[in-house]
Design goal:
It comes from Bifidobacterium myosotis. This is Type I antifreeze protein. This protein is α+β, with helices and mostly antiparallel strands and 80 residues long. The chain has a domain of 55 residues: Single Sheet (Rubrerythrin, domain 2). It is built from one helix and three strands; from the N terminus they run H-E-E-E. The longest helix is centred in the N-terminal third of the chain and has 12 residues.
């Protein structure tokens, strides 16, 4: 039996070696939402895997950003 944490380390190693971005798609015809890992050079998916119509488009959303450390907050500025 593998040691505890082995599975997680294997997943992280796989992602490090093959970091594919995940894209969110939605079908305009049937409303089916799905995500797909694709290379930057792959063509976008246009055919819905559920209804087989060419009505699929990428769904864009805001990327979460977390600011940590000094210099990001109003209280960090020096008073001059």
């Amino acid at each position: 039996m593998p040691k505890r944490g082995f599975h997680r380390a294997r997943i992280i190693d796989t992602l490090w070696r093959n970091p594919l971005p995940t894209y969110h798609y939605r079908c305009k015809n049937c409303g089916y939402d799905f995500t797909e890992q694709q290379s930057f050079t792959d063509d976008p998916i246009t055919v819905c895997p559920k209804c087989s119509q060419e009505q699929v488009h990428k769904v864009y959303s805001a990327v979460p950003i977390e600011f940590k450390g000094h210099g990001f907050y109003r209280t960090d500025k020096s008073s001059k």
